[in-house]
Specification:
heterodimer, A: 932 residues, B: 394 residues, alpha+beta, five-stranded antiparallel sheet
Chain lengths: 932, 394
């Protein structure tokens, strides 16, 4: 008997014919007709018109026919709710049938019919079925509770089904337990009320662990996934759960294995990292993960995506298994690309030789994406493993010789990074690179090549010709290339000013006058002004040393990584995105890794070894704001926004620079310039600002480096760094917001608590929103001192609340006191003397401050910049005595005597004021300013 | 959980569509067809996200199986389920082809109704399914029979039914090993491992509990305590060294907790053929054969291939049914083969030269040389040079 004929009925009047057949007296004919209906339904034809006729066939003792009718009902009941009622009687009757298979079938189908009236009738049969004597019916009923909850959550809670479901966890049949667990997990995910009722405790977990040994493979998955949501109360319990879960690692079903891995990975957080048990766990995890790589390719893919996470979290698990990630000829492309990713992560000095040999082979494969990624990987190896850099470079050179277009381009992009990592080491290959200029047609490769030419202009004899050739098509280039070309030509000019003047004129006019790209125009203007005002400064700025680039890329942000570890084996781990990024509405709460219960800061302990290996070496720290501008201008290769960020705010330890990062259009002005210039977007203002900075750079007051005020994990992905600055008689709070979460942030606002000096924002927080992931935005917030006053301990403490679209965050920081020194703090000499005498001697305090090789003049200049005024200077027995005064915003005067002894490396600072509370903070200011 | 399951033919026509959840609409069926099956580029991932709906797919010859969901499901489970689903279909009606699916669509719907409930996989064991999902319609079953079925479906031993009887109790074990080897062009072994499978055919009555042992180093160590002593004993008593198994995985019938604590493989086997365990070893792999290929491209229209096979095992052993498969370029027009031993033939349909040698002793060497004529093509893509593969029995 073949059923395929049902698929081929396409003639007209078909519905009518079917109707007749459905009402036929002959059972066989009826069944044939229902089959035809189902076939049409499958193909997508609308057969809802036959609803009453099909439902009429429901009353039958033929199970096969009954199932087909039910299938039809599930599909169309929603569109014909009134007629669906006709089926209720049959359902209720079937729920009483003596055959458990029919009872289960009825309850299963009823749950799938989403019609309110039917749902009402479902409650009673369901309640009975949950207590049915037959386990098959009970396991079906358990899932039906979840179905009902999906239709009407309130009903389930009101009717007490949750408790009945909970009772099933103690059922003697393992499959009933497994389905009950599955239903409970789903209900808990969607409904917070139910979550309270169904909360797991160690007792229920124990029952689940017992059922785990006996139920089907799928049941084991449900149970393990549910256990992974449970946080044991202490280390001992965590260990005992681990012990009972680890045997699952030898299961043939990959889902069971991965879910077991998830439980173990999560609970390991709670265990003593140095203990033997964790060491043995780590050993046990590796073999099953490796074995997953011999499963079907789709499962390999899921496994590899998860291994990628696991390697980032605990690199020790698979550190010796590099070879298993070597690509096989017949691996599907998605498996190959994932393997390559993991290979790069596992690369170390010990295995670099093998890896490199492999990568070289891959680079000759046929799949373009794979080849590109392999070439890029070779570059990564060079940057990651220094001793192998030379071999990597020669491999890349070999690849360039192949003249395969995309290989050459990719190689040039990575070579640029290698040059940055190891300056003055491999420049001999530039000649070879230049041979391939004509073949470059991708913006990133062109930009990289131009950067190389600009950077090494003095060694390339015909650098001017090369750059000139690029300049011909300037207008048609991608922004990234234009920016790069501009910078490269300026570099060339600074290095060889004699014969390149024309070229630089040309590029400057092209970028400032003929371009409508603001980034390009603005950069052009800066260079132009810089070159015409002070070429020496321009040289310092444009040719300054560049910060280091980091060796790891594409690392997942740690908070997200921890969340994803809790979702091992699930879709989230495949996408490397948190569930709320792709699941609509439901599935509310975020999962976090458990923390070890006793002792403090154990999470740091456990993650520390991983972090140290991942953190890039601290890039060069730029000391103050006055040199900040210099670095700003030095952003001469186009590696994208995060590179920018690194150069501007090098104090931030996180955010490693992706050396291969693409991206063009940088936002120099938007990001940092406004704060420096007091926010003048118009051209005139800007140039004036520049003049200020370069004309009298010494007049800058001291601005402490930005500190992290709110770390990303605490700020749910928002990282805030900040400092205070005083300029133009105005206190400013300089803030940088970095979005390390996966979604854009909006709705920023700020508020201060009462504080000692009445500081409060003078404007609303003005920040570019939305703030996209992995980007930062800076804001300069003017403050005034008209807010409510309350004395804080310490005096300079400031409590801040910051709000965004995600949450409200509270942070506290210390205001460096000098921003509160007013410009009119210079006392008359006589008044000074009188006041000094007037203040009682017990108010005088002496401090010693380490000298930083300053003489009296530089000291007083430095202090003056910060509104500490030197009123008189005296030389007593070879010692310089400076008498100084300052005034705080709240009118407190402070007098100081600074003793500078050329012979000893320290200053002696004596302070006198009526309010002694400020002394400590003022001494701090002196130290900060003088040591800067 | 799984929101729906669709089966398509190679043209993207729906053969089976079963929706389990309300959040999956009919348009999901079309979304997958348009974005994956009819996609212009080759599929780059088995998981696709289209408009917040995730599609998992596997492909068997011309048939696409896709599971759809809008939730954060267990991805490994979905793929395991799809593979299991094809196994179940194969067990019911043989090869999974368009024809067979159309012929059995009612049966497939019935199976889908049983093995997925609200998107949660239920018992998928074919042995059990066959007891109550039959193509002949349901025979009138007595109460005992049905309760027996339900207890099996949900029972602790879901893979075996009670009351099996054989006149003669028999048990067969097959050990299938495949050596996976990666070699650099210079002939250096990069990685090698043996993936072994133990296939059991059991024809036993009742509910027999079986125990099974292997001379695995892990097992021995755990019994003997110190490893140093153990190695010595292992060699002296059995005359064979123990083998270090990196990892093993077991069929669901094996009591895993018992293996963990006592290191004994004990199980109640399903009836008939099944895969009892898989294992993987990487230590001390001596390669049974060595193949040395020499390929020389003589101009655009001719290629010379020379393949030498060397057997590396003891001369006392004999390899049988040796089959070497040498891939040829797609534009091959003709092949002339000369071989010293065995028979070699060019099979155009498989794009390969198949060389069969009935018997081959240890420490021997055979050679094959072939001249391949190529058609002129304007296809610029390089020939990917697929690897030579080989099968044999010892």
């Amino acid at each position: 008997m073949t059923d395929s004929k049902y698929f081929t009925t396409t003639k007209k009047g078909e519905i009518f014919e079917l109707k007749a057949e459905l009402n036929s007296d002959k059972k066989e004919k009826k069944k044939e007709a229902v089959k035809k209906v189902i076939a049409s339904m499958t193909v997508g034809k609308d057969v809802s018109a036959l609803f009453p006729d099909v439902v009429n066939c429901m009353q039958t003792d033929n199970l096969e026919l009954k199932k087909l009718v039910y299938l039809y009902l599930m599909n169309y009941a929603k569109s014909q709710p009134d007629m669906a009622i006709m089926a209720v009687n049959t359902f209720v009757k079937d729920c009483e049938d003596s055959n458990p298979l029919i009872r289960a079938l009825a309850v299963r189908t009823m749950g799938c019919i989403r019609v309110d009236k039917i749902t009402e009738y479902l409650c009673e049969p369901l309640r009975k079925c949950l207590k049915d004597e037959d386990p098959y019916v009970r396991k079906t009923a358990a899932v039906c509770v979840a179905k009902l909850h999906d239709i009407n959550a309130q009903l389930v809670e009101d009717q007490g089904f949750l408790d009945l479901l909970k009772d099933l966890l103690s059922d003697s049949n393992p499959m009933v337990v497994a389905n009950a667990v599955a239903a409970i997990s789903e209900i808990m995910d969607t409904s917070p009320n139910a979550a309270q009722v169904l909360e797991m405790n160690s007792g229920t977990i124990n029952k689940l662990l017992t059922a785990l040994n006996e139920c089907t493979e799928w049941g084991q998955v449900f149970i393990l996934d549910s256990i992974s949501n449970y946080t044991p109360k202490d280390e001992r319990e965590a260990q005992s759960v681990c012990e009972r879960v680890t045997p699952r690692l030898a299961h043939a079903n990959a889902a069971v294995v991965l879910s077991a891995v998830k439980v173990v990975m999560k609970l390991m957080e709670m265990l003593d990292t140095s203990g033997d048990y964790v060491t043995s766990l780590v050993k046990k995890l590796a073999p099953p993960l490796v074995t997953l790589l011999s499963a079907e390719p789709e499962i390999q893919y899921v496994a590899l995506r998860n291994i990628n996470l696991i390697v980032q979290k605990r690199s020790d698990i698979l550190k010796n298994e590099m070879k298993v990630f070597f690509v096989k000829y017949n691996d599907p492309i998605y498996v190959k690309l994932e393997k390559l990713d993991i290979m790069i992560r596992l690369t170390s000095q010990s295995n670099i030789a093998q890896v490199l040999a492999e990568l070289k082979e891959y680079a000759t494969e046929v799949d373009v994406d794979f080849v590109r990624k392999s070439v890029r990987a070779i570059g990564r190896c060079a940057i990651k493993v220094e001793p192998a850099a030379e071999r990597c470079v020669s491999t890349l050179l070999d690849l360039i010789q192949t003249k395969v277009n995309y290989v050459v381009q990719e190689a040039i992009v990575v070579i640029k990074d290698i040059f940055r990592k190891y300056p003055n080491k491999y420049e001999s290959i530039i000649a070879t690179l230049c041979e391939n200029l004509d073949t470059l047609d991708e913006p990133e490769a062109r930009a990289s090549m131009i950067w190389i030419i600009g950077e090494y202009a003095e060694r390339i004899d015909n650098a001017d010709e090369l750059l000139e050739s690029f300049l011909e098509g300037f207008q048609d280039e991608n922004t990234q290339v234009q920016l790069q070309l501009l910078t490269a030509i300026v570099k060339l000019f600074l290095k060889r000013p004699t014969d390149t003047q024309e070229l630089v004129q040309q590029v400057l006019s092209l970028s400032t006058q003929d371009s409508d790209n603001p980034d390009l125009r603005d950069r052009g203007y800066i260079y132009w002004r810089l070159l015409s005002t002070d070429p020496a400064a321009a040289k310092e700025v444009v040719l300054a040393e560049k910060p280091l680039i980091s060796e790891e890329t594409d690392l997942i942000e740690p908070t997200l990584l921890d969340e994803l570890i809790c979702h091992i084996s699930s879709l989230a781990s495949v996408y490397h995105k948190p569930p709320n990024a792709f699941v609509e509405g439901r599935g509310g709460q975020r999962r976090v890794l458990p923390v070890k219960s006793q002792g403090e800061g154990t999470t740091e302990e456990t993650t520390a070894p991983v972090e140290t290996t991942q953190q890039p070496p601290q890039p060069t720290v730029i000391p103050g704001a006055d040199s900040l501008i210099g670095d700003l201008l030095d952003i001469d290769l186009g590696p994208g926004p995060s590179m920018m960020q690194q150069q501007m705010y090098p104090q931030q330890p996180a955010a490693p620079v992706p050396a291969g990062g693409a991206g063009g259009g940088m936002d120099i002005f938007g990001e940092g310039f406004d704060n420096l210039l007091g926010g003048g977007p118009s051209g005139g203002d800007m140039l004036g600002g520049l003049g200020d900075i370069f004309g009298m750079p010494q007049s800058q007051s001291y601005v402490p480096p930005q500190e992290v005020w709110l770390s990303a994990p605490k700020g749910k992905g928002l990282e805030i760094t900040g400092t205070f600055a005083r300029k133009n008689n105005q206190i400013n709070m300089e803030l940088t917001f970095t979005n390390k979460a996966m979604q854009p942030m909006t709705g920023f606002a700020i508020q201060f608590n009462k504080n000692s000096f009445g500081l409060m924002p003078a404007q609303v927080l003005n920040i570019r929103t939305p703030l996209p992931p992995n980007q930062s935005a800076s804001a300069s917030l003017p403050l005034n001192t008209q807010g409510p006053v309350q004395k804080m301990e310490p005096l300079t403490l400031l409590q801040v609340a910051i709000k965004n679209s995600i949450d409200v965050f509270y942070l506290s920081t210390q205001v460096p006191l000098h921003v509160l020194f007013t410009e009119d703090g210079e006392m008359d000499k006589k008044v000074f003397l009188a006041t000094w005498k007037d203040i009682p001697a017990q108010n005088e305090v002496q401090y010693t401050i380490q000298n930083d090789q300053h003489n009296a003049d530089t000291v007083s200049q430095k202090l003056r910049n910060n509104n500490i005024f030197t009123i008189a200077k005296r030389n007593v027995e070879g010692q310089d005595m400076l008498y100084q005064s300052l005034k705080l915003t709240n009118g407190i005067w402070v007098l100081a005597e600074l003793k500078i002894q050329p012979s000893t490396p320290s200053f002696v600072l004596s302070l006198k004021a009526r309010a002694v509370d400020v002394y400590e903070a003022i001494k701090q200011v002196y130290e900060n300013i003088l040591h800067n | 959980m799984i929101g729906g399951l669709f089966i398509y033919n190679h043209k993207g026509e729906v053969l089976i569509s079963r929706v389990y959840r309300d959040d999956i609409g009919r348009n999901a069926v079309d979304a997958f067809r348009v974005n994956v099956i009819h996609a212009r580029q080759q599929v780059r991932s088995p998981v696709t996200n289209i408009a917040r709906t995730s599609f998992f797919h596997i492909k068997r010859s011309n048939i696409w199986l896709a599971a759809v969901t809008k939730q954060n499901v267990n991805a490994a489970m979905v793929f395991e389920f799809l593979h299991k689903m094809t196994d179940v279909m194969a067990a019911y009606f043989g090869k999974v082809t368009e024809e067979n699916i159309k012929n059995n669509f009612v049966l497939i719907y019935e199976i889908l109704d049983e093995i997925l409930d609200f998107g949660y996989p239920q018992n998928t064991d074919t042995g059990i399914l066959k007891t109550f999902i039959t193509q002949q319609g349901v025979k009138t079953q007595s109460k005992e029979e049905t309760s027996q079925i339900t207890s099996q479906v949900t029972g602790q031993i879901g893979w075996r039914r009670e009351g099996i009887k054989y006149r003669r109790n028999e048990l067969f074990l097959d050990v299938l090993e495949s050596v996976n080897l990666l070699m650099s062009p210079q002939g250096q072994v990069l990685s090698a491992h043996v993936a072994g499978r133990i296939i059991m055919k059991s024809y036993l009555s009742g509910m027999p509990e079986c125990k099974f042992g292997i001379n695995d180093k892990v097992l021995m160590e755990s019994k003997g305590g110190k490893s140093g002593q153990d190695d010595g004993r292992g060699t002296s008593s059995s005359g064979k060294t123990s083998i270090a198994i990196d990892d093993c995985q077991f069929h669901q019938c094996v009591k895993l907790s018992k293996f963990e604590t006592e290191h004994s493989i004990s199980f109640i086997p399903p009836d008939g053929e099944f895969e009892l365990m898989r294992y993987r070893t990487t230590k001390d792999i001596s390669l049974p054969f060595r193949i040395i290929p020499l390929v020389r491209e003589v101009g655009r229209q001719k290629m010379e291939v020379k393949v030498v096979v060397k057997s590396n095992f003891k001369p006392s052993l004999l390899a049988q049914k040796v089959e070497v498969r040498i891939p040829t370029p797609l534009n091959t027009s003709g092949v002339q083969v000369i071989c010293m031993k065995g028979k070699a033939k060019y099979k155009a349909s498989e794009n390969a030269i198949v060389w069969k040698i009935k018997r081959m002793g240890g420490m021997k060497e055979c050679q094959l040389s072939a001249e391949i004529e190529l058609l002129n093509t304007n296809d610029k893509r390089k020939w990917t040079r697929p690897p030579i593969s080989m099968n044999f029995e010892v």
